[in-house]
Amino acid sequence: MTSGVDADFDAYYSSISSRLYVIFGSTLTVIGTVSAILSCIVFGQNSLRRNPGSIYLIAFNAANLLVILLTLFPVVIANITNIDASLYNVLFCKIEFYLRLVCPILSRHYLVLASIDRVLVTSSNALTRQRSTHRLAYWSIAGVTFITVVFCSHLLVGVNIIQLYPGFNFCHYEAGNYMSFAVYSNLIINGIEPCLLLSMFAILTLKNLHRIHVQPVNTTVTVMTTHRSKDRTLTIILLSEIMSFIISTSPVVTMEMYQQITQYEIKNARREVIERFLMYITFLLTFVHPATSFYLNLTVSKAFRQNTIQLFYKGGRHDITHGSQSQNPRAVTIAVRSTKQ
Q1: Does the N-terminal or the C-terminal CB of the chain have fewer CB atoms within 10 Å?
Q2: CA of residue 293 relative to chain centroid, distance
Q3: Contact 35, 293 (CB under 8 A)
Q4: Which range has the worst mean pLDDT, 24-38, 116-130, 239-253?
Q5: How many domains, in total, are found in the chain?
Q6: By residue range, what is the domain housing residue 239?
Q7: Which DSSP state fits 233?
Q8: How far are the Cα atoms of 48, 112, 116, 190, 314 from residue 140, in angstroms, in the given order?
Q9: SS3 167
Q10: Alpha helices, DSSP H only, in the chain?
């Protein structure tokens, strides 16, 4: 196999991945932005915001919006314009790389916090259920945010523009022991750990729900069944979020683990091209979960659909009322005068 054939092989797969990012990535950017904004608005309604679980989901969807705009969108623009500013400006390289890792970590760990809250809420122990509070939600979110921002600050120093060969630059970790530390820590914190924690808390939540269903009906259970419908709604939403996250994230985690296991093997040019192509595709798939969260919630939760419909109904009614009043100011003035009389 000649080098010319290798170059054509590389160009072919690079062209496919670029087109996928332009078409599929652009679509995910649009629907993901709408999804995150609408989710924040729906969970921010008074009827849901009273529940501590909604606080975690608001933070989760706000982080999803950052993931879409600060992680996916720059990659899409780079593929559309064939210009990547992070390859020519060191400061831009460091900041973009930092945000590209921090935003997904925040999103995934906010989801972990929400899953812990569901374990507390579905517990059969009343004292355990009482630990789910707004105060705990705010402090937990603030703590995770602070730890993540500080822990990842090493990226602002250890990431730089690397020249693989003349005319080919890329923004990546500095070579050496630091790169090994950064790669493995990212694999664990951004991939393996969230998947394991979310799976574990989902199982615990399902066990708690099973215990509640098999218990004899008594006053406590009746009260909880009557007054905790919002908890059931948020639990259903969260379990579907966990399943969606694991499905969309597992491929890239598997690819990263495979690359670390086979990093010392001698690979031919075609194998490297295919592995790089699969890495690009699996990375793109990770954005399916944050981009489709709102639409998934609409599908699995009747209460969420009703809250969304009420939100649009109230907004449309407000616009109609405001428009009719602005079109007939004289009628409004007469009504005010008659009231005073």
Answers
A1: C
A2: 8
A3: yes
A4: 116-130
A5: 1
A6: 3-317
A7: H
A8: 19, 11, 11, 18, 33
A9: coil
A10: 3-20, 26-43, 46-49, 52-67, 73-81, 90-121, 126-129, 134-151, 155-158, 177-187, 193-214, 219-227, 229-261, 269-285, 288-300, 302-327, 329-340
